[in-house]
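Milestone 3.1: sequence recovery, worked example.
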């Protein structure tokens, strides 16, 4: 098996494919990470404060979140990509492991982000659509147009994230789902959006009430999770698998309130897009002929850098830069202009032979690039145009020129530390294949440990820790899982299982009295019982997966009611010195088989008041007269 894996790795290292899809994946993955970090920063007092706004967490956490967001932005832009990936990975490990995000505010996709962030440390995702490419070109003082064909990477850069983030996750989740009766009944996709705590604000009852569709969807998802790991290696199967998987995760985004998980999974499907599509897209998007010829002073360092920057962002290749010293005589539009004037400005000639100079050249460049045209239109607005022209003139007249000696490319363009590490520790292609194969074997062992122990033995009711002969193995298995969960993102994917939904028949909400004595709903759970935006993602997970479970505990419920009221109270004009909230309860139906109209029936269930939450001098007291929380 090891030899077969090594041969596969050799093949993958040798096969080079366009880096375009990998660059787009890096951009969208970075945006998913960035939005989640900003979400955590917005809710930082609810998540990190032991008691929101009263017993506050260290402000250092807030600064670390901003540093994390900066790393995610750098990763998105492809600026110092490997360093940004390393910093992002460190934060994805540290925050979920050492803060309340570990258990109380688990986002449901943190381990997915950990695993993919780990791979981005080693994958050259900066080779396409990155500022690192621009930095490398700017290191050379002489302008040279970008290569006509996109950069290439090993095909393993695509296959490894798909294997780890999609194939392993699907297989593990599918194994777990086989033990859930409602999944075996075909209603695994129907039940969560029928429960008020999991549905979003869009009414999908017309689709949920279609029994044939919902059962067909449930069985298709279950089958897909086993078929995907076996078939995604085959080129002809990737497009159907990509279409199905992207549809499923889009469905998660538009029907449930755990949209970050849906987006995080969805961006990985960019890695399944056929490479010929990227090539065809590039040919279709790029202009057949340049629309604008721009003439610049070849002896001007600033002009050379300007040409490099514009050429980097001109993805349509609609602008062609030409040196005045080499091409001015070949352009009729420049005839009669003294050399001194030619060297004092940037000139452009369009396809109709019209001549532009100075700021007008930049406006035409922006328009020719297509996506930058709105900025060109903005610069054309009277007032803005005159101000920009004055700034341009000041810069143009103050630029320096140099002789040919200073335009010779530097002998050393800087050393890439990642390249040095790869050359030092990975060696030639044969040694690299052997070491990568060993790493993949280790990851396979960690994944099998998780799936066999928790997806098979645990689901069959076998507890190795209770068998004397197997107890040491069980201890080792748990230790490996703790390690793989925190460092590699390998964890049991028991998502939306029967042991969470069975008995989850209680819905709680909180109200208060405004200044006029009218009852108002706290902006958390509304009068229908739905968790309202923006309290979705990991905030929803805190309430529906941790605070409230099928096995209610009064202490746990009181702990999170204290956090929620302390956080939302000041938003509605109440504080922890003197405030009273009403705790409401209603019933929810959670069946193991399909029922018509369940979504609307759960939303329409009547509420009843079961107690009060009394705040006095920074302390909360939960008063539930005659109510046993654990029997609700």
């Amino acid at each position: 098996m090891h030899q077969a894996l090594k041969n596969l790795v050799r093949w993958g290292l040798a096969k080079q494919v366009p880096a375009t899809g990998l660059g787009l994946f890096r951009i969208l993955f970075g945006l998913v990470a960035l939005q989640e970090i900003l979400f955590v920063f917005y809710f930082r007092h609810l998540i990190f404060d032991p008691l929101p706004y009263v017993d506050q967490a260290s402000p250092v956490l807030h600064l670390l979140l901003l540093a994390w967001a900066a790393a995610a932005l750098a990763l998105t832009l492809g600026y110092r990509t490997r360093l940004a990936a390393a910093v992002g990975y460190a934060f994805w490990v540290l925050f979920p492991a050492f803060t309340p995000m570990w258990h109380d505010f688990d986002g449901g996709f943190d381990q997915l982000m950990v695993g993919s962030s780990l791979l981005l440390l080693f994958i050259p995702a900066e080779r396409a659509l990155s500022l690192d490419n621009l930095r490398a070109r700017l290191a050379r003082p002489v302008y040279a147009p970008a290569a006509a064909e996109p950069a290439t990477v090993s095909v393993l850069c695509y296959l490894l994230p798909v294997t780890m983030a999609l194939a392993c996750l699907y297989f593990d989740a599918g194994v777990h789902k086989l033990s859930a009766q409602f999944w075996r009944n075909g209603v695994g996709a129907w039940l969560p959006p029928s429960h008020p705590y999991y549905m979003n604000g869009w009414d999908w009852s017309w689709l949920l009430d279609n029994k044939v569709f919902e059962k067909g969807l449930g069985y298709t998802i279950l089958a897909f999770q086993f078929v995907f790991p076996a078939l995604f290696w085959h080129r002809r199967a990737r497009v159907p698998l990509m279409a199905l998987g992207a549809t499923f995760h889009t469905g998660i985004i538009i029907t449930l309130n755990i949209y970050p998980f849906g987006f995080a999974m969805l961006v990985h499907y960019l890695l399944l897009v056929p490479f010929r599509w990227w090539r065809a897209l590039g040919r279709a998007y790029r202009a057949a002929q340049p629309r604008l010829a721009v003439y610049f002073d070849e002896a001007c360092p600033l002009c050379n850098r300007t040409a490099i920057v514009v050429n980097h962002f001109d993805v349509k290749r609609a602008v062609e830069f030409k040196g005045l010293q080499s091409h001015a005589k070949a352009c009729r539009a420049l005839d009669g202009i003294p050399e001194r004037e030619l060297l004092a400005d940037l000139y452009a000639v369009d396809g109709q032979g019209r001549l532009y100079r100075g700021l007008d050249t930049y406006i035409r460049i922006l328009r020719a690039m297509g996506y930058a045209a709105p900025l060109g239109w903005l610069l054309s607005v009277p007032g803005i145009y005159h101000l920009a022209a004055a700034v341009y003139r000041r810069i143009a007249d103050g630029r320096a020129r140099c002789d040919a000696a200073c335009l010779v490319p530097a002998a050393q363009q800087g050393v890439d530390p990642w390249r040095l590490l790869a050359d030092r520790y990975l060696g030639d292609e044969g040694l690299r294949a052997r070491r990568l194969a060993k790493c993949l074997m280790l990851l396979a062992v960690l994944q099998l440990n998780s799936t066999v122990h928790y997806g098979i033995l645990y689901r069959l009711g076998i507890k190795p820790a209770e068998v004397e002969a197997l107890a040491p193995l069980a201890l080792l298995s748990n230790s490996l899982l703790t390690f793989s969960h925190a460092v590699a993102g390998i964890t049991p994917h028991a998502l939306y299982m029967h042991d969470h939904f069975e008995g989850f028949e209680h819905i709680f909400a909180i109200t208060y009295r405004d200044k006029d004595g009218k009852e108002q709903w706290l902006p958390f759970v509304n009068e229908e019982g739905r968790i309202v935006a923006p309290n979705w993602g990991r905030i929803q997970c805190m309430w529906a997966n941790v605070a409230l479970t099928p096995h209610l505990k009064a202490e746990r419920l009181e702990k999170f009611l204290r956090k929620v009221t302390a956080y939302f109270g000041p938003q509605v004009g109440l504080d922890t010195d003197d405030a009273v909230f009403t705790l409401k309860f209603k019933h929810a139906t959670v069946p193991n088989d399909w029922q018509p109209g369940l979504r609307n029936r759960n939303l329409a269930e009547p509420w009843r008041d079961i107690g009060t939450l009394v705040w006095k001098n920074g302390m909360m007291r939960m008063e539930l007269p005659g109510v046993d929380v654990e029997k609700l």
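The two ends are 54 Å apart (CA to CA). The chain has a mean pLDDT of 87.
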